Amino acid sequence: MYIIIAGCGRIGSTLAQELIDEGNDLVIVDRDKGKLDSLGSGLNATRILGIEYDIDILKEAGIEHADMFLALTQNDSVNITSCQVAKNVFNVKKVIAKVVDANKERIYISLNLDYINPIKLSIEDLKSRI
């Protein structure tokens, strides 16, 4: 599959390596050059420095051919906006965002975005172990 990941923090960079190991083609977009550089030379993915929801940046990333778009930045506004662009402008079939502030989950729901909420998942897991 051809996958674009917006954001290469802990989740994005770890997932990127696993997806590459499974044989997927990957592009990582991040506005922070330091984060892109920290991926190291061992990660066989295209890296693009730029704003994650910028149409020209997404075109450079090949979004018109993407099977999946994942918004995994540390900013809900960026995740929501980039997913909306991927979904509504480029018609990417599978778009998933990461919720950063659990209190903003309702926004993702209201926009009918597929998402994960790591805080909620962690709490549920911890509670199940109590």
TrEMBL record:
PROSITE patterns annotated for this entry?
Answer: RCK_N
One Pfam family assigned to this protein is TrkA_N
Q: Which organism is it from?
A: Romboutsia sedimentorum
What are the transmembrane regions?
A: none
Q: Which SUPFAM superfamilies match?
A: NAD(P)-binding Rossmann-fold domains
InterPro entries found in the cross-reference section: K_uptake_TrkA (IPR006036), NAD(P)-bd_dom_sf (IPR036291), RCK_N (IPR003148), Trk_Ktr_HKT_K-transport (IPR050721)
Q: Which UniProt keywords apply?
A: Ion transport, Potassium, Potassium transport, Transport
KW Ion transport (keyword) present? yes
What is this protein identified as?
A: TrkA family potassium uptake protein
Domain RCK N-terminal as annotated: residue spans: 1-116
